[in-house]
Amino acid sequence: MKRRIDKLSAATVTRWPVRGQRLAGALLLSVLSVSGSAVAQQAPSGDELHSMYCVEVIRAEIGLQHHLISAADAAASSAPTPALRQQWIDTSAELLQGLERLEVVRYRLQTYMLPRISALDSLSLATAMRQGDADFRESRAVAEQCAVECTEPQANSQQSLVCSTSCSDKATLNRVSACEKPAWLPP
Q: Which range marks the domain in which residue 70 is found?
């Protein structure tokens, strides 16, 4: 039975390498569980739950960004023409800028949460992190499915835009996207 559960768990792991990001999430969860036994815990506020949700979303986005950068670099090195090589180099540069923005957001979220964690209910915080991970995986799956459906030959770009707009789960996408600009955090 345990072997079957391990296989199921392994099958649900994200497809992209994460390079230490899982370790950071595990470390944060271990801090949550250790802090829970030492101090009486209070219920986290909505901003604190949202921050923990977003810590996990941003962690996953950073992992995806690393994967995309590696893929763009590999494509640039094997590009058959100088023009195509330059396009991949430009794409990689854009992805690196996006990665830098995500790392700044992650730092802000962690700076906000780390002093608070020991006093907050660890179960609630861990639940928020799991929800962030689940929503990120769901948004990626929907995006991949929409990319397949909406790249079918369309009569025009307007039809393609309508397809991608109608295809996605707006509620999940909005929750995940809001993490990139955490307006609830103090400046």
A: 18-129
